[in-house]
Design a protein that fits this description.
The chain is mostly beta strands. The protein contains no helices and two strands. A hairpin with a 7-residue loop joins strand 1 and strand 2 (about 25-35).
Length: about 45
């Protein structure tokens, strides 16, 4: 089974409310898709 992913930069966290009207909030990460550095040298 293949995994799918989007490469990008994490901007922060937010909440999304469920559509089933039970009032539950789900945590979600806000990301900006696009090219970014990957590897040990990308943080310097």
């Amino acid at each position: 089974m293949a995994n799918k992913a989007i490469v990008g930069e994490k901007l922060g966290m937010t909440q999304v409310w469920d559509d089933d009207n039970k009032g539950r909030a789900r945590d979600r990460a806000s990301c900006r898709p696009g090219p970014c550095g990957a590897g040990a040298d990308s943080r310097t």
